[in-house]
Design a protein that fits this description.
Blueprint lengths: L12 E2 L5 E3 L2 E8 L18 E5 L6 E6 L6 E5 L5 E4 L5
Length: 92
């Protein structure tokens, strides 16, 4: 094993696309399965932003990250069960 790295700390984050090695960067697309939580009336949803992460191919160190939604999610209200709803979302 050369190295391992979690692409994103969000519990629902997933790497579902292909990696790309370009100009000395290993580009990793990060998405999530967070939208599946929206069906559960007791789960806080949705604050995942989606991203493209560039890693150093030799060390796995994060070189940069670009979010697909620039603005971090904030509380937008509560659902019928009183659970926080977050937004903007939609980058899953």
């Amino acid at each position: 094993e050369i190295w391992t790295r979690r692409a994103d700390p969000h519990v629902t984050a997933r790497v579902m696309g292909s990696f790309l090695l370009a100009e000395g960067h290993l580009l990793v697309p990060v998405t999530s399965v967070e939208s599946t939580l929206a069906a559960a009336q007791d789960a806080v949803c949705c604050n995942f932003r989606g991203s493209l992460v560039a890693l150093d191919p030799a060390t796995g160190r994060e070189m940069w990250r670009r979010y697909t939604i620039d603005t971090p999610a904030v509380k937008t209200g509560t659902n019928a069960n009183g659970v926080e709803m977050m937004g903007p979302s939609g980058a899953t």
